[in-house]
Amino acid sequence: MAESITAEPFRFFKIILQETLQDKKLRIPGDFVKKFGDELCDVATLRVPNGCVWKVGLTREGRKIWFNDGWHDFVKNHSIFNDYFLVFEYAKNSTFDVLIFDKTACEIEYTCAELENEKQNDGKKSKLREVAYEDEYKFVAVLEEMGICISGAYKFLSVEERQRIIYASRLFRLENPSFLCIMGSTTVLNYVYVPPKFANKYLNKVNGSIKIKDTDGRVWPVNLAWSGWCGIRKGWPAFSKDKDLKAGDICLFELIRTEGVLFKVSVLCHKHASLE
């Protein structure tokens, strides 16, 4: 793993509202337009995980930009309805990778005209994901395939909580070794428990001051301490209070830098209300 901070892609999300469906267009967030609007051409490329590619026209009005011509076709093909949750990752050259989640917070089964002959195989994959929610060992195996450690507390998780964890893990597309924690009343207020498997492999020579970075780029000093187990303690309450963390929120810790340890912390709030 590189010793320097990995270049991070820019992501934004949109919750589909009824008026969005009626307008048959989708506005791109203003902060994204400020940063990348000048490099966008008149046609954007939308890519979904099954390899299907869609061309969608962009409409401009001052500093506002919408996905417009072709957007409604994209919506119809993927059966996107009110309250669906879409995540866009900008891949440069007016190209976006799109993840689509339905009202139950599960990622949809992607289809398009060119890929109908693969529908049966996609269905099998969907069933495997469902099994992962029910079977605790398959659940852990799915996370490990994504390079994510979780503590033994997973044995006490409900099927719904496992579903939320896999949802969050797929959402953030982590590129470096990571661990995951569901906030409880104690972890919100006082500390974060680091899974032993992760701590022993990546942090066995680390003790004392480290840093965590939020998705806004702010860096927070915290303390990593060992006392029979490894945990992030001093400094965590300030981070937790600033992010208004609550029991049930999911925090993903991605190890960005090993020399002068730096974690990036991504938060998925309880009931998927917001993404930080």
What labels would you give this structure?
15 strands, globular, disordered N terminus, 7-stranded mixed sheet, 29% helix, 276 residues, disordered C terminus, alpha+beta, single chain
Strand order of the largest sheet: 8-9-14-15-11-12-13-10
Cα(first) to Cα(last) distance is 25 Å
The average pLDDT score comes to 80
Number of helices: 9
Structural class call reads: alpha+beta
Main β-sheet description: 8 strands, mixed
Helix content: 25-40%
Element order: H for helix, E for strand: EHEHEEEHEEHHEHEHEHEEEHEE
Low-confidence stretches: 1-6, 114-131, 271-276
Strand proportion: 25-35%
Output the radius of gyration: 20 Å
Inertia-based shape: globular
The number of E-state strands comes to 15
Please provide a written account of the structure:
The protein is an alpha+beta fold and 276 residues long. Helices cover 29% and strands 29% of the residues. It has nine helices and 15 strands. Strands 8-9-14-15-11-12-13-10 form an eight-stranded mixed β-sheet. It has a seven-stranded mixed β-sheet with strand order 1-6-7-3-4-5-2. β8, α6 and β9 (178-182) form a beta-alpha-beta unit. α4 (119-134) crosses α5 and α4 (119-134) packs across α6. The longest helix has 16 residues, at 119-134. The chain is globular and about 60 Å long. The two termini are 25 Å apart. Residues 1-6, 114-131 and 271-276 have low confidence and may be disordered.
